[in-house]
Known about the structure:
The complex is a heterotrimer.
Chain A (H helix, E strand, L loop, with lengths): L76 H12 L22 H7 L2 H4 L11 H18 L3 E3 L5 H18 L6 E5 L5 H8 L3 E5 L9 H7 L4 E7 L11 H10 L3 E5 L19 E3 L20 E3 L1 H4 L6 E5 L2 E5 L17 H37 L4 E2 L9 E4 L10 H10 L6 E2 L9 E3 L7 H19 L3 H5 L12 H6 L8 H8 L1
Parallel strand pairs in A: 2-3, 2-4, 4-5, 5-6
Antiparallel strand pairs in A: 1-7, 6-7, 8-9, 10-11, 11-13, 12-13
Chain B lengths: L7 H11 L4 H4 L22 H12 L23 H7 L2 H4 L11 H18 L3 E2 L6 H16 L3 E4 L5 H14 L2 E4 L18 E7 L11 H9 L3 E6 L18 E5 L15 E5 L12 E5 L5 E5 L6 H4 L12 H38 L4 E3 L7 E6 L3 H10 L6 E2 H4 L9 E5 L6 H14 L1
Parallel strand pairs in B: 2-3, 2-4, 4-5, 5-6
Antiparallel strand pairs in B: 1-7, 6-7, 8-9, 10-11, 11-13, 12-13
Helix pairs in contact in B: 4-11, 6-11, 7-8, 11-14
Chain C lengths: L2 E4 L4 E6 L2 E6 L1 H7 L2 E5 L6 E2 L4 E7 L3 E5 L4 E6 L2 H4 L3 H4 L8 E5 L11 H9 L3
Antiparallel strand pairs in C: 1-2, 2-3, 3-9, 4-6, 5-8, 6-7, 8-9
Amino acid sequence: MAMNSTGRGTTRPETGEGGMPADTFSGNRGLAMEEPLIFEQGEPARAGVDLPEPPIAELRLGDVKPRSGIGLPGLSEPQVIRHFTRLSQKNYAIDAGLYPLGSCTMKHNPRLNEAMARLPGFADIHPLQPVATVQGALELIDSLARWLLDLTGMAAVAMSPGAGAHGEQCGMIAIRAALEARGDKRSRVLVPESAHGTNPATAAALGYAVDAIPGAADGRVDTAALAAKLGPDVAAIMLTNPNTCGLFEHDIIEIARLVHDAGALFYCDGANFNAIVGRVRPADLGIDAMHINLHKTFSTPHGGGGPGAGPVVLSHALASFAPASAVVRGPNGFSLAEHPEGSSFGRLKAFHGQMGMFVRALAYILSHGADGLLQASSDAVLNANYVLASLQDVMSPAFPGPCMHEALFDDRFLKETGVSTLDFAKAMLDEGYHPMTVYFPLAVHGAMLIEPTESESKESLDLFIATLRYLAERAKAGASEHFVAAPRLTPRRRLDETGAARKPVLRWRPEEQLDQAAE
Amino acid sequence: MRYLPLTQDDRAAMLARIGAGSVDDLFRDVPESARRSSVIEGLPSHLGELEVERRLKTLAARNLPAGSVPSFMGAGAYRHHIPAAVDHLIQRGEFLTSYTPYQPEVSQGTLQYLFEFQTQVALLTGMDVANASMYDGSTACAEAVMMANRVTKRSRAVLSGGLHPHYAEVTRTQARWTGFDAVDAPPDITGTEDLASLVDDTTSCIVVQNPSVFGHIRDLSALAEACHAKGALLVVVVTEIVSLGLLTPPGEMGADIVVAEGQSLGNALNFGGPYVGLFATRDKFVRQMPGRLCGETIDADGKRGWVLTLSTREQHIRREKATSNICTNSGLCALAFTIHLSLLGEAGFQKLARLNHAAAIGLADRLAKVPGVSVINRGFFNEFTIRLRGDAAAIVDRLAEQRILAGVPVSRLIPGKPELANLLLVAATETNTEADMDAFAAALAEVV
Amino acid sequence: MAMLKFTKDHEWIRVEGDEAVVGITDYAQQQLGDVVFVELPEIGKNVEQGRDAAVVESVKAASEVYAPVDGTVLAVNDALADEPATVNTDAQGKGWFFRLKLAKPAQLDSLMDEAAYTAFTAGLA
């Protein structure tokens, strides 16, 4: 079997002692409330909205009968507000604390962006209204597109992908379409070992064989190995720059030349654009396509897992293959190209793209301006290097500095302590910190990838650094039980992920159904 | 700069610890030719909030909000009233600014609402299990077809003539580039296409929208049996989720996979995005599902909690062999959906559906009386097709000048077909008043 | 008499005449952690030496299991569907994956015996 190299134990906590005693009647502890499911506290007749009686009782459904009950609970407005307020209080969030998540760019989400996105002129317009009635929306999309082109130096931008992975697919389809248009069917895509999983998943879905490029000792791609793998059957490489080890690929221009000389195209994963935005233009590095995560670099909120947006900047070679819809600026205003024409590769999503995220991203960009964006990326890189320099004596950097916007450590400093990267991460939770990205990139053992972003003050970083120092020293001093039993102070302690995967329970069921299932 | 906390003193102290003379030194790996340490020329400088507001409000003012005029637009996005509580709750920072719940101990808020969302979607669709959302209904539709291909080990999908043209195009695009066949049926204006005849034993699935893009509703039970007899799956698409407050759900008609657009609950029109894709299926197919799944478990103290589970289907683990490349999905939109549906509850959701249906009946009866207008549908939920004497797109533009958003011309979705040019899709929801409908009918009478 | 052989990819194969039973080794299950699911091949499928035959999943990883030799799948261990944990508790006994009809018994000569496999795993980092 192929031994998985994450080396990460599955979480199956030892139940019992170590947590906080349940010493209250209600189960609540001060402001930490226990909260059941909505299904466990509803009455079918209750509602949190007041609706009038339908004026017409007749049904005109054709051949289909109306349904009988659905099984939804009914709650009043106070109950709903209390329920979701209590849920929110169990969540960590950027508003509340630092998220050192490498490759996620958890920066501050400005509230101006939320206010602008909610203007009725943006929020209350239907995607298929006559274009004469939505000229402002089309101009906004065009303005954002122009900023993205100016910041990247690229020729064109496809605005419609719904998130980063969707953008990767957009860029890679454009590449494949361009190759096929010139009669060139190639079958392989090169992807570094250290790449994010969406990269090989995207390439494989498009029918490419994925060939891994090893890393060099300095944490960058092994350029010689890459060159050796290039050939007439390679369609593209997919590189992340800065890469997932937080390092700038110093050979990137040479790599681009080698790739183009071999007749292949260069896809860049733009997840780490925050390190270089306003300072380096990807077009100057020779790339052909790059997705931009608006929910990373351009501050649109992560929302607990989306929504995002993944516009893709394209070189001249790929511009004509971009998908529908696209905003077109004409002499008399803006229009929409909604139907794939000419060499467009098709459509990736209904309607025109994640307008709500466009408004937020443009508000962010206008607020920063070119000078602010350059300062933001500079501060992001400065903050990461400050963390690296401050902890390199007590933790183990995977590569010598300087780094870009994220600092990568491995678990050598935990050797023989009985504390794993996972345990270390769980102990951070009790200290009030969301852990850094762990076990990624796979190429580094027990990886810990720290990306503070530019949103952290020096004071915030100093406390974070001091806390990690404390934990590292404690681990080395042999206090492994402190880590293995962590977390103790969070709303829940370690959860049984093994049990969840072996016997998946993916929805609530009423008692009667559970009893039937048990019979 | 208001979003950047570091002061010059901070920066100097930090550089000293790092041992670098300037931040530029940290960028020494950037090739000389690509390196710049000054601002990209020609781009504007930073702006205060007031100025940003001015500029964006100017752009917003050039749009006609659907709620400010009589508005009857549907075709995959519907204007409903969203209770004030929804937007307040989703703007709580712990929801708005939280990350994907990969560290479950500090993400129980997100995980619990995802579990509630998954349950709601399963109940609405009449299916066993649902995921934690996709980008939207159209991408969920394409993913459903790809899942059907995996399950049946076949590679030919049939897209019925009532499927939203954008959804069909998204599915065809995936087909073309990921290597399967998606065969279209002609537009089914009358809602009478013979779907069972389109399925044979090379078919992985047939994709049927119910109500169709033209508004027709069908009992799909016989089609489900026909599919299963040939070893194919029935994929049902629902673009107006409120319809499931009234109609027999696809799960009770034998659907194998149900995908839907959830936008109608909790989410504004937003010019087409962000929306929220719903994806539901049978227990036996759960390991072939794309997207995140939230599951129940217990913690070290024996307390009930939730975690993301069955992650080995996903890109970050399975890489090349993942069921999908999706990573970020539509969490906050799913939360808005969950909150809105929690407020509506069983009684409220069913009443909302009946209000929508009643509004559409009221509108259909008025429009049918306008000379030169005929209502094609015998049955519908809240959207139906009318045939006009004249070009529908031109009529819609004229009515827009009179500040009425009259619906979506079929030609907007299916261009280049003169025989469809006089067809208009018209929707009515609980937000349309009788006065709105009277105004529409009167204005239409003038231009037809 | 049953012969027990091992691959470098941590599969074991117990030969019984012209059939053999295949699973993953105890070393492998320790590396994997808690097994949550096993994807077994279809009965009648032809497998090739060194190519994908099954998948074993833990919470955080999905690992390919390769066929140690060429053959045709005669039976699979359905009990693993309800109790994947058996792979952890008894990897080389009740945690078997599938039974093969051998196509090329000579391929067994290239595999390690128990002593060689034990030495091999001892040498792994």
